[in-house]
Amino acid sequence: MRGITKRYPGVVANDHIDLDVKAGEIHALLGENGAGKTTLMNVLYGLARPNEGEILLDGQPVDIADPADAISRGISMVHQHFMLVPVLTVAENILLGAETMANPIFLDRGEARRRILALGKRFGFEIDPDARVDTLPVGWQQRVEILKALYREARILVLDEPTAVLTPQETVEIFAVLRRLAAEDHSIIFISHKLYEVLEIADRITVINRGRVVGTRLPAETNEEDLAELMVGREVQLTVDRGQSHPAEPILRLEGLRVRSDRGQEVVRGVDLSVRGGEILGIAGVAGNGQDELVEALTGLRRSQSGSVHLGEKEITGLSVRGRREAGLGYVPGDRQKYGLVLGFTVADNLVLTQYYGRPFARGIQRNDAAIAEWARETIEQFDIRTPSEAVSAGTLSGGNQQKVIVAREFNRELKALVLDQPTRGLDVGSIEFIHKQAIRKRDSGTAILLVSAELDEILELSDRIAVMYRGEIVGLLDGRSANKEEIGLLMATGGKGRGGASSSASPGAAATGASP
Amino acid sequence: MRARLRSISAVVVIPALSILLALVVASVLIIFSGLVGPGGELDLTLPFVAYASLLQGAFGSLRGISNTIVAATPLVLTGLSVGVGLKAGLFNIGATGQVLAGGFTAALVGVALADAPPLIAIGGAVLGGILAGALAGFIPGFLKAYTGAHEVVTTIMLNALIQLAISGLVNDVFKAQGPTFARTASVGNAVLAGLGNTTLHAGVLLAFACVPFTFWLLWRTTTGFEIRAVGANPTAARYAGMNPRRMIILTMSLCGAFAGLAGAIEILRLGYYPAVFGTSIGFDGITVALLGQAHPIGIAFSALLLGAMRAGAPLMQIQAHVPVEIIDVIQGVILIFLTAEIVVRRVFRLRAGPVETGGELQTITRSYGEKVAG
User: Fold this and answer.
1) Are residues A443 and A353 both part of a single domain?
2) Which residue of B has its CA nearest to A346?
3) Is the peptide bond between A360 and the residue preceding it cis, with omega within 30 degrees of 0?
4) How far apart are CA A272 and CA A516, in angstroms?
């Protein structure tokens, strides 16, 4: 790609970007959210037309009109959010749009199965073509996406943040697949903002900032600090200085907590935990081991079957969401757009979403708009939320700033305990740094913090103690400063009951959700 | 200020263009209607003649203007009934049944208070109508909140139930002696009489007073904030400590109250409840609410527009020989263009709207609701 420039009204998303990808190369594209990675890939995939510049394929200039055109030229994209039909089988999903026909009317399912099995074998991940996609763990769904691309004879694969949804083990496995693909002369463009991953997998790294290429590096001659600085344009503190914590009395106590899922299965099976004031307790675990239900039961969104939750001296087991908030519990939800914000509301309204009914934001049943606006302006200033004003809708902010709105709302009041659920999911380095610093500050003010995260690095970086959750139980409680990744990873995958067993990687269909065969 | 103006014009543009397109489509029909008219020929100027006499009928005289306002009065209320529901993410198709329940109850109370002083008689009948409408809204609200039954289904079924039940009662239990056709007795002093020699009545004030009230409720109170939050994102509302179930029940009751008031006003104007109270004001409320973009002020304007078409149509039929039914066609086509916004955008080459608008339409296109957690 040579001199690619794409302008949108008011912004230049790509400013004369040059990118060359060799056959058999894994080329990482690194940049913050909004740096222009996605736009560039949309240009390559025919979803956007560049205003200037050209795309050369095997030395020949090509004009890519639309995604179908891109696919026919051997360019395929694996999106971050999978484009799969959950109720169809692997083979059916792969055939969608690339039907192998026995005759003009009927599909040649036999031939399709043979080809899928052969492709799987060649690249080291054999998959049952007849398995329904919604029974597969996320990591295997991603492989279906890759198979889809290979089935269409892709030579260039674009993977948009492929590891965002994976566990550490699944990430290792997908990397093996990618290396295998590269070894067979496929070119891979790997989009990410996780520095260590990029260093591990890429042959070359191109960093983009504000629509321009700011540098190309070989992994051997760079490091995380260098890349982060390129990416953000200033020096960044990658690991927060967490300082010494001074844990006091237990504040948030869970005793024998049992919770059922929507399907009626008991997914939290007798959890005892106690978080002390002034410490961060991290909960590590593969997604789907009961963390979501635990957090919901804790915050009042879901009823628990038995057991109790105490906040300080007070039992809050039977209280409503609002009752718990008023008792001093804060909560940053895992899905900011679904739970945390009303995107169509203004930033100011979102900043008072949990406190709108009390003084000074309301007088009787009437809102006090002046007080709300004033408080919003102060909070925006204090938490460095980048927004034109408090009156624009929250949906227009970037992901990082949306999360800052939630963090500001939850942190900016007196709290006894705080639940952080995936507080930095999908955020760029700068925002992560900010949110981690705020969490440490809150810790040091004596708040008990429970951190749930799928990012093991985040858990390790912030936690004073780490609890590992496996199939609804706490299977290990480790010291946060001495624990290592391998030890936790093993507990996450097996519950500490020996190696092998039902790890998420063993086979498609089983595992991960803990479903019995 | 300029940003505010721009956001207002962004909201107004689709309804305005929908009306324009509907008038164009209707004019084709009007031209062809000339074939069956007295002249029996195609007259390309006929639409202009028809629309001119429509305007004259609606606004050309004091009597016309008062007819327009009176016709708009129940539409304001049913428009608010549907519009407030949309703000809470609810699609109230039940305005029709709520109108009937309100009208019938107002008639019964009116008959009982027929000899009381007018103020008490009207007040009692109107209050009865509001409460009956609220109850007719409460039922689907409760079912939605606690069982997840979709309000579109329950309100449609309730419409039929209420209509048939009332019809049975009027033909039997509450049938008045005397009149040649089945109807209730007269409401006596509870009747809403015209002021002076116009058709204007006290109910007009009451109905239009609901416009600022609704605006205040939705945007100036904490309850309105909860209603809008539940409508825009129920999961976030629950997370924030609000009670979506309570809001759904409250909002549906409020929707019912507006429609019940509309029914009470229409019946008290008539003076009795007839065996067949055929009225389209309930369903017209959907058009009014969508044309008004579910905003109280927009709803007031679109109710006046639809009211004007109703009030002006007779003169159009007399002067241009275009049947009054063309008004239903225009209204229907407006509704189609409003809901198929993308067609309007294509015709006028407009870019897609900002994220904020269209929230109300989503309520309608979302075909089925999940069980409300709480």
Assistant:
1) no
2) B356
3) yes
4) 26
pTM of the model: 0.80
Nearest CA in chain B to A410: B240
- Mutation target among A325, A353, A396 for the B interface, most CBs of B within 10 A: A353
Q: How many Å apart are CA A29 and CA A41, to the nearest integer?
A: 10
For residue A379, the SS3 value is helix
* Alpha helices per DSSP H over A85-133: 90-95, 109-123
Q: What is the CATH number of domain B13-365?
A: 1.10.3470
Among residues A199, A232, A265, the one where a domain terminates is: A232
Closest residue by Cα to residue B81 from B24, B155, B191:
B155
> So what's the ipTM on this one?
0.85
Q: Please say which residue of A413, A430, A446 terminates a domain.
A: A413
Q: Where does chain B show beta strands of DSSP type E?
A: none
Separation CA A381–CA A151 (nearest Å): 52
3-class state of residue B321 by DSSP: coil
* A335 domain-assigned: no
- Give the nearest partner residue to A362 out of B222, B235, B240, using CB atoms: B222
CB under 8 Å to A441, separation ≥6 — which residues? none
d(CA A26, CA A24): 7
Which residues form the domain of A260? 239-328+414-517
Kindly list the domain boundaries of chain B, sorted by start residue: 13-365
Closest to B251 (Cα-Cα) out of B90, B361, B74, B75? B90
A345 inside domain: yes
Question: Using CA atoms, how far apart are residues A35 and B310, in angstroms rounded to an integer?
Answer: 56
Rounded to a whole number of angstroms, the distance from the CA of B243 to the nearest CA of chain A is 9
pLDDT digit string (tens) for chain A, length 517 residues: 777 888 776 667 788 888 888 889 999 998 877 678 888 888 888 888 888 888 888 888 888 888 888 888 899 988 877 788 888 899 888 888 777 777 777 778 888 888 888 888 888 778 888 888 888 877 788 889 888 888 888 899 999 888 876 777 778 888 998 999 899 899 999 988 778 888 999 999 999 888 888 889 898 888 888 888 888 777 776 677 777 888 889 999 999 999 998 888 899 999 999 999 999 999 998 878 899 999 999 999 999 999 999 999 999 998 999 999 999 999 999 888 889 999 999 999 999 999 999 989 999 999 999 999 999 999 999 998 988 889 999 988 878 889 999 999 999 888 999 999 999 887 877 888 899 999 999 999 999 999 999 888 899 999 999 999 999 999 999 998 888 888 888 888 777 765 443 334 333 333 333 333 3
